[in-house]
Amino acid sequence: MVKIKVVAVGKTKEGWIKEGILYYQKLLKKYVELELVEIKEEKITRSRETITVLDAEAERILRYLKKSSYVDPSDLCIALDAKGKSLSSEDFAKLLEENLSRGYSEFVFILGGALGLSPKVLDACQIKLSLSKMTFTHEMSRLIFLEQIYRAFSILKGTKYHK
Which residues pair with 3 in a beta bridge? Predict the structure, then answer.
């Protein structure tokens, strides 16, 4: 079974978003083994530069990745970044399918916090994707992204979910 880890900065606080995440976790069980990891976010203050905040979060993300099976060559690390490549749902499904056929058995997706991701994290990832040209809260991005993972596997399995 395909393994997917979603590493996200910060906790999901909104109840309705938590419910949505649980909903897609349940739906995804038939397609993937899903692990959600929340990394502690840094406090954003006027006196701290953005790069300082991002690098502190990057240290936690990279430490987690080193503890996980990230170093395994059968894993593919993908960062969600506003400057990443935009894909349609069909193209995202193709990206997953192509990489599964290349021998990748685990996908690690990294979602940043309110300020995004540090260049250190972006450099550690083989692929950078944009969720949308629109801006979403980092909590909403998690829910939307889980729906897209579900949609991608629905496309690959030929179910009627994707129209």
Answer: 33, 106
